[in-house]
TrEMBL record:
It is an enzyme of class 2 (transferase). Residues 398-521 are annotated as: Regulatory domain. Catalyzes the condensation of the acetyl group of acetyl-CoA with 3-methyl-2-oxobutanoate (2-ketoisovalerate) to form 3-carboxy-3-hydroxy-4-methylpentanoate (2-isopropylmalate). Homodimer. Keywords: Amino-acid biosynthesis, Branched-chain amino acid biosynthesis, Cytoplasm, Leucine biosynthesis, Manganese, Metal-binding, Transferase. Pathway: Amino-acid biosynthesis; L-leucine biosynthesis; L-leucine from 3-methyl-2-oxobutanoate: step 1/4. This is 2-isopropylmalate synthase. GO terms for biological process: L-leucine biosynthetic process. HAMAP family: LeuA_type1. The keyword Cell membrane does not apply. The gene is leuA. Mn(2+) binds at D18, H206, H208, N242.
């Protein structure tokens, strides 16, 4: 990729102006300052801080940002009206580098219906507004609002007028997100070629996302000769939003082979900016949003996880670090495979033998079928439970319980006892009581239940339950744990785990007695 100045694309961020025009996205002065600081740290070229005439609050925001921000140009929007321009000029006065961005619509529809102005009057307004802006700063941008629905001859005349009056940046917005990439590129090519003084200005894109084409159109505009892109963090903005800055920056960075342009943006700051804008506006970022969505660097399917573990480039076209994400995530779920599961166990500090691993994986898949999100805590609970019961003499094979609010509960239990299957159907006052009675029936022991505790491993009604059972027998006290997404099964597993520990204690003291009890059933 060539890093010549001719191929440098300036990033003009309008999160604080067009972004704030999203219904419900209003920001306070302090919030705007916070965002402006992050934009400056990202090395954004121009920050459009607001529309100074809109309100005293907007004026103050532009003015404070102009006072504080030193490394980015600070800009205010203004209509083609002297009052607007004077207010914008006043607001940006303290800036190290200040810009006035003045605009007027040039499409037949907007001129006739909205402005109710003849085209000639619009041309005069362009000259007057740009000239006035130049009395405040030599950095003046002019925009042809609704450029993509403007007749090309008139657009060229308007652009020529603006440049003659002193505009150094010419913005050709797709105000209503109507253009296609080919059309947008052709418009830039035509204007740059036909306007005699076009070499005296930098051309700019400004795209809205009504057809989901804002980013594609912006990149097409760059291919057509634009060297400034107007965009917002997370793509927030009027209606369906503006072109998303993070997508433009990373598209140019990742595909320099076919788009030989560059920005000076520090892309590692992208995630921080995205999170801040989302928090401040309350607009959550969709999980599958490019670059900054929670799933942008997350892999759940086993084949992808296996690929990423072998070489991240198999399924990642940019590194998470390059956008400020610490690392990619292998999300554990029903689509995960053995490679990812083994990697997760290693991360969690487990080393399992082959049989235990296969059994844990089987239970993990079962859990995945039933539970939407599998957290690390679920896997820890599952593996601990499996490891704890692996070498045990007694295990719960299956348990079905039936209970109602006004009657006895029934438990239908199958257990493995020293390798043999044993079954029973038993009653109780509730499902847990029935399950415990069933276990006692099969093992032929009557330990005293001292404690029964349940807690949810993670959040949600599909969370696994982790149960603790404390049993006492002949002065020996043991705790057993069990985990399962079915609370009664978790309780039964905990009970049986405690019984196994009692048997171990018995064996240590009186091996014959332990053997007798188990053989009794
Ligand atoms: C495509 C865009 O994003 S453009 C920017 C849009 N952003 C905003 O509008 C947010 C801030 N806006 C505001 O606070 C207000 O609209 C203000 C302060 C700018 C104007 O408020 P008001 O004077 O009450 O006018 P109102 O908003 O109702 O109507 C807009 C007026 O500006 C005129 N106008 C619109 N664009 C321009 C322009 N570029 N140059 C000159 N006049 C314009 C309209 O024709 C209309 O004029 P009219 O009152 O003679 O009919
Ligand atoms: C003010 C202009 C640049 C604008 O936001 C648009 O046309 O979308
Ligand atoms: Mg806009």
């Amino acid at each position: 990729m060539s890093h010549s100045e001719a191929n440098r694309v300036r990033i003009f961020d309008t999160t604080l102006r067009d972004g704030e025009q999203s219904p419900g996205a209003s920001m306070t002065l302090e919030e705007k300052l916070q965002i402006a600081r992050v934009l400056e740290a990202m090395r954004v070229d121009v920050i459009e801080a607001g529309f100074a005439i809109a309100s005293n609050g907007d004026f103050e925001c532009v003015n404070r940002i102009a006072t504080e921000i030193k490394d980015s140009t600070v800009c205010s929007l203004a209509r083609a009206a002297l009052g607007d321009i004077d207010r914008a000029g006043e607001a940006i006065k303290p800036a190290n580098s200040g810009r006035i961005h003045t605009f007027i619509a040039t499409s037949p529809l907007h001129m006739k219906v909205k402005l109710q102005m003849e085209p000639e009057a619009v041309i005069e307004a362009i000259h007057g507004s740009v000239s006035r802006a130049c009395t405040f700063t030599d950095d003046v941008e002019w925009s042809a609002e609704d450029a993509t629905r403007t007749e090309i001859d008139f657009l060229c005349r308007a652009v020529e007028t603006a440049i003659k009056a002193g505009a150094t940046t010419i913005n050709l917005p797709d105000t209503v997100g109507y253009a296609t990439p080919q059309e947008y590129m052709d418009m830039f090519k035509a204007v740059i070629e036909r306007v005699p003084n076009s070499d005296k200005a930098i051309f700019s894109t400004h795209c809205h996302n009504d057809l989901g084409l804002a980013v594609a159109n912006s990149l097409a505009g760059v291919a057509g000769g634009a060297r400034q892109v107007e965009c917002t963090i997370n793509g927030i903005g009027e209606r369906a939003g503006n072109a998303a800055m993070e997508e433009i920056v990373m598209a140019l960075k990742t595909r320099g082979d076919v788009m030989p342009y560059h920005t000076r943006i520090k892309s590692e700051e992208i995630m921080r900016a995205s999170k801040l804008v989302s928090t401040v506006t309350g607009f959550t970022v969709q999980n599958n949003k490019a670059i900054v969505g929670a799933n942008a660097f997350a892999h759940e399917s086993g084949i992808h996880q296996d690929g990423v573990l072998k070489a991240a480039e198999t399924y990642e076209i940019m590194t998470p670090e390059s956008v400020g994400v610490t690392k990619s995530v292998l999300t554990m779920g029903k689509h995960s495979g053995r490679h990812a599961f083994a990697d997760k166990l290693k991360d969690l500090g487990y080393e399992l033998g082959d049989n235990a691993f296969q059994e844990c994986f089987r239970r993990f898949k079962e859990l995945g079928d039933r539970k939407k999100n599998i957290y690390d805590e679920d896997i820890v609970a599952l593996v601990d439970d499996e490891v704890a019961t692996w070498a045990n003499r007694m295990q719960v094979i299956s348990l079905n319980t039936y209970s109602s609010s006004n009657g006895e509960a029934v438990a239908n239990l199958t257990m493995a006892i020293d390798g043999d299957k044993a079954k029973t159907v038993t009653y109780g006052s509730g499902p847990v009581d029935a399950a415990f009675n069933a276990i006692k029936d099969l093992i032929g022991m009557e330990p005293h239940l001292q404690l029964f505790q349940v807690h949810a491993v993670t959040q949600g009604t599909d969370a696994q339950a982790e149960c603790t059972v404390r049993l006492e027998e002949g002065g020996r006290t043991v705790n057993g744990q069990g985990a399962h997404e079915d609370t009664v099964t978790a309780a039964a597993r905990a009970y049986v785990s405690a019984v196994n520990k009692l048997l171990v204690k018995r064996e240590k003291k009186a091996p014959d007695e332990a053997a007798k009890v188990v053989a009794a059933k």
